[in-house]
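Need residues for this backbone.
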């Protein structure tokens, strides 16, 4: 049983490490868009050099895109998502490494709630596709 507990702890820490990196990426990207929107605008302007790759007669002009306005709300969502993901990861790692049972139970409940939310969104998307598509258009 002791070997199983060590492997379980190692597995939780390994999986949480991957999600910690993902959370940090979301957090850093969101913060970069918030702090330096002009750098993002410069990147889009450089991408405007590749406008000839778009189909002929395309109404899209890359130079006309204002990425700061477009990504301002998304950057806030990225920051919130990154912080929440990092909090869940730290909670799980603390529970696993310190062998605190109640923290692991709360961690399992949080993961189950996230999983059930994802499953319900997928079911909603496939059963109510027209409603979901009109919501986003």
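Answer:
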């Amino acid at each position: 049983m002791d070997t199983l507990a060590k492997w379980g702890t190692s597995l939780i820490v390994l999986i949480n490490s991957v999600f910690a990196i993902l959370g940090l990426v979301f957090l850093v990207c969101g913060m970069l868009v918030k702090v330096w929107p002009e750098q993002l605008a410069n990147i889009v302007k450089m991408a405007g050099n590749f406008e000839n790759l778009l189909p002929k007669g395309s109404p899209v002009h890359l130079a006309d895109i204002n990425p700061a306005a477009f990504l301002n709300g998304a950057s806030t969502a990225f920051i919130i998502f990154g912080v929440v993901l990092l909090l869940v990861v730290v909670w799980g790692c603390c529970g696993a490494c310190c062998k605190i049972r109640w923290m692991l139970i709360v961690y399992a409940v949080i993961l189950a709630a996230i999983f059930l939310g994802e499953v319900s969104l997928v079911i909603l998307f496939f059963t109510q596709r027209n409603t979901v598509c009109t919501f986003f258009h």
